[in-house]
Amino acid sequence: MKHRRHRRVEGKGLTAQIDADDCNIENISVGGLFIRTTTPMPLGMPVRVDLTKPGFESSVQVSGRVVSVVTAADSERLDSPPGNGIELDPMPLATEKQLHALLRELGLKDLAEPTELEPNQLYATTNPDTAQVASNVRGLLDMLTDALQKVRERDEEILKLKAEIRKLKTGK
């Protein structure tokens, strides 16, 4: 068995909608999920996933990237169903709390509640040089956050275009 960073739980009754396709979830954790599919997506492909569970108040929308592929041919040899492993991208605190609630609903116990640290908790210091470095780091983090948002927006555009292309190909 592979070493995992996060404990996983079986995705009983949980479905995912990816690129307008419904998929069954084999397992899920705070860091990723494995979906069953006979038409695997390519490694590195960005995906937007809407997680839904009957009886759960709302869907949880997350994004990520395909990090593993199990083809139908490899399935028996690997003792795993065919599908894709998806690593989740960092998410806003509210989304992370929704995901944790969903995981608890699925039976993942003893899951710590996500929290957000205040910047002064991360960079508390009285040294002026360290304070300058902390200020620079905060600025870089803001720039990275903006860049990540732009990447997500582009990923959404790509997914919409792929869905349109699929509709044009199928004539639906």
Short description:
Helices cover 39% and strands 25% of the residues. With 172 residues, it is of the alpha+beta class.
Account of the 3D structure:
The structure is a single chain. The protein is of the alpha+beta class and 172 residues long. It has a 6-stranded antiparallel barrel. It contains 4 helices and 7 strands. It has 2 domains: 9-105, Thrombin, subunit H (Beta Barrel), CATH 2.40.10.220; 119-170.
SSE topology:
Layout: E1 9-10, E2 15-18, E3 21-28, E4 32-36, E5 46-52, E6 60-70, H1 72-78, E7 83-88, H2 93-105, H3 119-122, H4 128-170
Antiparallel strand pairs: 1-3, 2-3, 2-5, 3-4, 4-7, 5-6, 6-7
The neighbouring-strand order within the major sheet is 2-3-4-7-6-5
How many helices? The count is 4
Whole-number mean pLDDT:
82
Structural class category: alpha+beta
Number of domains as seen in the coordinates: 2
Percent helix: 25-40%
Largest sheet: 6 strands, antiparallel, barrel
Low-confidence stretches: none
**What coarse outline follows from CA principal-axis ratios?**
globular
Overall CATH class of the largest domain:
Mainly Beta
Query: What letter string, H or E per element, gives the SSE order?
Result: EEEEEEHEHHH
- CATH fold category name of the largest domain: Thrombin, subunit H
Fill in the keyword field for this structure.
alpha+beta; globular; six-stranded antiparallel β-barrel; Thrombin, subunit H; single chain; 25% strand; 39% helix; 172 residues; 2 domains
